[in-house]
Request: fold
Amino acid sequence: MTVASALEMALAAVVLGVATWTIAARETFAAVVGFVTYGLLLALIWVRLDAVDVALVEAAIGGGLGGVLLLGAAARLRVTETPTATERPSATVRVGAALLSAAVAAALATGVILLPDPAPTLAPAAAANATATGLGNPVTNVLMAFRAMDTMLEKVVLLLALVGVWSLAPDRLWGGHPGPRHRADPLGTLAFLARLLPPVGIVVGIYVFWTGKDHPGGAFQGGTILAAMWLLVMMAGIADAPQVSSRRLRIVLIAGPGIFLAVGLAGFAIGSAFLAYPVAYAKPLILGIEVAMTLTIAATLGLLLAGAPERSAGQ
Amino acid sequence: MIEFMTTVLGFILAMLALGLVRILRGPADADRMMAAQLIGTGGIAALLLLGTVTAVPATVDVALTLALLATFASIAFVKKGRANAPDSTGDA
Reply:
């Protein structure tokens, strides 16, 4: 066994250990920190598996924004934690839950073990047709051309999730500002960081989106970084979250799926089918859609984390 | 050189595993959060070394993303921790 494979085994064992501990942890906050760490370590594993695109998402969501969301949830649930921790479900419920979990795990394991060898894959077909779009990154090819329908619908799902979060607002606050008004010491560390980091982060976000056409990266990863920078500015109280009734904001929110859908419908006229790009214009069309999607993803993720409207206009 | 870097990578991963002990044992929330930050920083180093050892240059972008976003959990932690305090001004 070489040093490298020994390291891989050790890393996999550590990640499994962290995962088990995160599930078993009684305290919500401890479990959240365990989960963030799990995301960080998982990014290493994805890199080792040559799935750098996935590693980027894991680093941005698992290690970054997901942690913020879960920490917020843990802080909100803290008051209810003590009563919940003292509750003990009956033996029947516990045995039933254990049996159900074991059955699901066994079914998944059987599914993986029974896969034919080599496993069915469309990867060679995707690689063979890579030149059709003029993009060098096969993952972007699949997401934006070969399975464009899925990607478009995913963006609609993000919008639905945002509508779901907004709908938690009481009627009188509908259309107001999401989340509390953050205030921070204008000369403090957080305000300093919120002025220092976003210029760098915005450049990195645009770079990650742009490099996605030929190398690992793309609209989702770039948009997540932009969303994080926006959140930082909001959390430091430098800029307030916009009113959810703002027309400009709503145009940004629907720009991504809207332009995607428009190009898809135009496929009937200029291409051969819905979402079929004419070969000569495939690359500029895909990049155009991705620019709009990056903005939409940044705005949607930022607002999802900002939460439901909690203040009426002007407050 | 590759052997040397693999060894250093192993050392950093061992340090990350040590950091995990603090997350597992706590006892305070802040201890856990700081350990997660340490693992974030170590993870960036491990990614950069891994990218060089395996000759996958795009790994640098993952390290860059992690460097930008790993601090966010701490920021949220500080904000949420203060938001629950009686004098809820949200200073950080």
Chain A touches chain B through 64 residues (CB under 8 Å). Chain A is about 70% helix and 0% strand. Chain A has a mean pLDDT of 86.
